[in-house]
Each structure stands twice: as structure tokens, then as C-alpha cells.
Design goal:
It holds the Pfam family Methyltransf_5. 44% of the residues lie in helices and 14% in strands. It has helices at 3-16, 34-41, 58-66, 79-89, 106-110, 131-135, 164-170, 173-184, 189-202, 209-219, 224-239, 242-256, 270-281, 305-311, 328-333, and strands at residues 48-51, 71-76, 96-100, 120-126, 257-267, 284-285, 288-289, 316-318, 341-347. Residues 1-26 have low confidence and may be disordered. Bound molecules: S-adenosylmethionine.
Length: 348
């Protein structure tokens, strides 16, 4: 290894020093862009809405409070979130139905409670981590608090699931690079992957979120904040299969919403927003949203205008002309929401 790389590894080791595990550094957030969400949902008496990402329950409670004659089905894959949802049912008797599971489990979960396809009035998802997840250092989601490299949304007792630690210790250099590039849109993916593999042999690998963050800072010259965010997001997204889950979410939204039903999505990075946008605008091939606009799809993809129009057909109509983003003053208060986007669509 080059002398300069040794030096940066040693700086990384010494920076770690006596770092301790700690908890609860985040304040309890309020429901994100709640006014815009409620406006776009436009809930009416007697309607049922599926909150696919219960999390801390802030949006769910806002929906319940917005109209006394609305019912909410609250889904989350995190057992701790669903415990919270169960507690909330006492406050809203007969109006809140908690469901533990993933987007991809929806048909199995909805059938026993009598929800059939083409029947839901509205649904929403607010992607990312809840504060229950971020504030608990032992879950390993946050780069702000030191904890084990876990990152499983399904909780620490989830069976047959991989953790971020498994990926960092077992994936080869090429796969690590692909994960950082594809899931985190990280430009320095290959350099980071190579350094992580080298670190396994020279310093017995990375064992905590704090070690990973300090390690990244030590191998990057500048703008490490953005890179740390990208790498943490890539690992979390890969561990939880989030992009495929999002694809399932929209596929099932198509199936379970009635005609005229509304879907509201809140995403926090470009990769997620692109998936939603491609579905809503009809840029989908073989059930997967395309990585690029159809007209650039490649030379083998020679279609007539009619065929192209057929492919671009979408069962969605956007609820607003432009994507909705948070006010600038909110963005400066919270850099995590810099890339946040709200998209609303109506099922035709
Ligand atoms: C940002 S939080 C939602 C916060 C919530 N809207 C609120 O106001 O408190 C996202 C939640 O979605 C859940 N989640 C993410 N992907 C999921 C999936 N594929 N299936 C079910 N729940 C998921 C996470 O476990 C997390 O609790």
C-alpha cells in the first residue's frame, strides 16, 4: 500500500479515538410536507387511505385528524413502528388498521382484511428512515451516531437478512463499487470499494458506523459529507432491497387503487424519484422502470412512433404540472431534505 494511504488510514484510526455509542441526537420531526400531502390527497368522508410507510406515525395521525370519517391502513416493515401503530389504534378506535410487512407483501396482507384490487381511495409513501430508526444507534442507520453496521429496516431479529456489515466484509471490490455507484450514485465508487477491501486486510475491517464515516473522511480529500451520505444510503438501500420494493409499491398501487384513486410519493434522492417519475410518465419496460428515456434506449430498440406511444402509455395522470419540492428555507434548515420531491398522481 502507498505511504500516503497508510498515513490516511492511521489518521482514520486516531480520529476514532474513544468514540462511544450514543443515542437520541435527533429531535422528533413533524410530518414532512404535510400540507402539500393533504392537499394532493384531498380525502373525502368515508374514504380509506393506505399509508405504506407508517414510521413514526406522523403522517398517519395527520390523515386521521384531517377528517373524522377517514380510515387509515398503516403498513411498515419495521416491527417497532407497528408496535407504535398498535398503540395509536386506542386513540382512533375502528379507524386505524396496522399491518406489519413490506410493500412486496401487500397482496398477502391486504386480502385477509378484505381489501380487493381496485378498491382503495388513496395511498401514500414517504421513503427513507423514521426517527425511531435513525435515533436508535443500535440499528446502524445514522452516520451521526456510532453503532453497529446493521441497517435492516425489518429489525434486528429479521431472519435470513444481510446487514451492512455483511456487505462491507464479504462483497468483492467490483460488487462494492457497483453498489455505491448504482444505489448511491457515488462518483468515487471504485476508489471507495478498493480502499474498503484493502482495509479488511490491513485494519481488520470496519466494525461500526462511526468507523465507516471516519474511514471515508480519511480516504477522501474534500466534500466527504456528500460522499458519506451517498455511501450510507447505498448500503441501506441494498440491505433493504429498497429500489425493487419501490417498484413493487407502485405496481401494487396501480392494482389496488380504484379509478380516480390518488398516489402520493415523497422521495429523498434522485434514484428513487426517477423510479416514481418513470412509472407515472409511462417510461416502463417489462415491469421495470427504464434507466434512460426510451428515445435513447439503444440501437437495438428500433420502434415505430405508434409502438413508442403504446409503450409510453401510463395509467397515471400527474396531479400537478411540476414536481413539488420543499420551501428553500426548510432545505437550509435540514440538508437531509435537499433532494426531497413530492409527486402526486391519479389513477386513470
Ligand atoms: C421516513 S419513514 C416514514 C415516516 C412517516 N411518514 C411519519 O410521518 O412518521 C419510512 C418508513 O417506511 C418504512 N419502509 C421503508 N421501506 C418499506 C417497505 N418496503 N415496506 C414497508 N415499510 C417500509 C420504514 O421502515 C420506515 O419506518
Amino acid at each position: 500500500m502507498a505511504a500516503s494511504t497508510y498515513r490516511s488510514f492511521n489518521i482514520f484510526r486516531s480520529r476514532l479515538g474513544t468514540r462511544k455509542y450514543c443515542t437520541n441526537v435527533h429531535d422528533k420531526p413533524s410530518p414532512f410536507m404535510v400540507q402539500e400531502v393533504l392537499e394532493q390527497l384531498n380525502l373525502q368522508d368515508g374514504q380509506t387511505v393506505l399509508d405504506m410507510t407508517f414510521g413514526d406515525g406522523l403522517h398517519t395521525e395527520a390523515l386521521l385528524k384531517s377528517n373524522d370519517n377517514v380510515k387509515v391502513i398503516a403498513l411498515d416493515r419495521d416491527p417497532y413502528a407497528i408496535e407504535k401503530a398498535k398503540a395509536l389504534t386506542l386513540k382512533y378506535p375502528g379507524r386505524l388498521q396496522p399491518l406489519l410487512g413490506r410493500f412486496s407483501d401487500l397482496p398477502v396482507l391486504l386480502s385477509p382484511i378484505g381489501i380487493k384490487i381496485n378498491t382503495l381511495d388513496a395511498l401514500m409513501f414517504d421513503l427513507g428512515c423514521s426517527s425511531i430508526q435513525l435515533n436508535d444507534a443500535s440499528r446502524g442507520f445514522s452516520s451521526e451516531v456510532d453503532g453497529p453496521l446493521d441497517m435492516r429496516m425489518d429489525g434486528p431479529s429479521a431472519l435470513n437478512s444481510i446487514t451492512a456489515y455483511d456487505i462491507l466484509t464479504r462483497a468483492d471490490e467490483q460488487d462494492l463499487g457497483r453498489i455505491f455507484k448504482t444505489y448511491g450514485s457515488e462518483n468515487q465508487a471504485r476508489k471507495i470499494a478498493r480502499s474498503i477491501v484493502t482495509c479488511r486486510y490491513t485494519f481488520q475491517g470496519l466494525n461500526s458506523t462511526g468507523e465507516l464515516k471516519e474511514f471515508l473522511k480519511s480516504i477522501l480529500e474534500e466534500k466527504s459529507g456528500r460522499v458519506v451520505k451517498n455511501v450510507f444510503f447505498a448500503l441501506r438501500s441494498f440491505v433493504n432491497n429498497e429500489l425493487n420494493e419501490l417498484n413493487f409499491a407502485i405496481r401494487f398501487a396501480e392494482a389496488y387503487l380504484k379509478k380516480g384513486g390518488r398516489m402520493i410519493s415523497l422521495t429523498f434522492n434522485q434514484v428513487e424519484d426517477t423510479i416514481v417519475k418513470r412509472h407515472v410518465s409511462g417510461n416502463v419496460l417489462e415491469t421495470n422502470p427504464n434507466p434512460m428515456p426510451l428515445k435513447y434506449y439503444g440501437q437495438a430498440f428500433n420502434l415505430s412512433v405508434e409502438e413508442m406511444n403504446e409503450l409510453r402509455k401510463s395509467i397515471w395522470a400527474p396531479l400537478s404540472k411540476h414536481v413539488i419540492t420543499p420551501e428553500n428555507h426548510f432545505k437550509s434548515m435540514n440538508p437531509r431534505i435537499r433532494d426531497a420531491k413530492l409527486r402526486g398522481a391519479i389513477k386513470l
